[in-house]
Hints:
The protein is globular. By secondary structure, it is mainly α. The chain contains 12 helices and no strands. 31% of the residues are buried.
Amino acid sequence: xSKEFLRARRPEHKQQRRExxxxxxxxxxxxxxxxxxxxxxxxxxxxxxxxxxxxxxATREEIYLELAAQEFHDWETAVLERIAAASSPDGVFDALxxxxxxxxxFCDLLSHSSTTLEHNVxxxxxxxxxxxxxxxxxxxxxxxARARPDLTGEEAxxxxxxxxxxxxxxxxxxxxxxxxxxxxxxxxVIAALCIEFAPTAKRMLRALxxxxxxxxEGRD
Length: 220
C-alpha cells in the first residue's frame, strides 16, 4: 500500500485519487460485471483499506453512480456526433442504439442504476448523478427533435429515455452469462429466446416514434 497515496491532502491530489479509484472500478466491472464488484475489491485494486476509500466515496454504489454519470456524458457526445453525420431522419435510431451497443459498461450500469446503485448513496451523490444525467438526456433529446421534426420535444425526450431503458432491459438478455450462453448453444429451441439487442431495440424505437404522434390528442 502506498503511503503517499494515503497522505493525499491537496484538492488536486484528492481528485487524482478519485480518478484512480474510478479507473480501478471501471476495469473490475468490465472484467467481472458491475454486480460482482465489491467495495473491498475496488480498495484492493488501488492499494487502499476500505476505511480509507471512504474518504473519496462513501459506498461502492457511489463509485458506480459516478461512472454512470461519466458514461452518460460519453454517450451524449457519441450520439450527437452520430446524429449530425446521419444521412436521413431514420439515422436517429441507429445513432441511439449503436452507441449503446458499443458501450457494454454503460448498458451494465443502466441495468443496475435504479435497482441497486441508487439505493445506498448520499443525497448529494444522488443529486449530482441525476443532474448530470438530466443534462445529458436533454442534449440528446434536443438533437433527436431537430433530426426528427415529426416529433415534439417531449416525444423526442420519451424516445431517448426509451432507448436507455431498452439498454437496461434488453442488453443483459442479449448478452447472457456463461451458463445461459452454454444452454443456448446446446438447445436451439431455448436459444430462440435469446434476443439480438440492436435489431430489437431499433424496431421498438421505430414503433414508438411512429406511435407517439398518434397519442397527442389524448394527452392531458
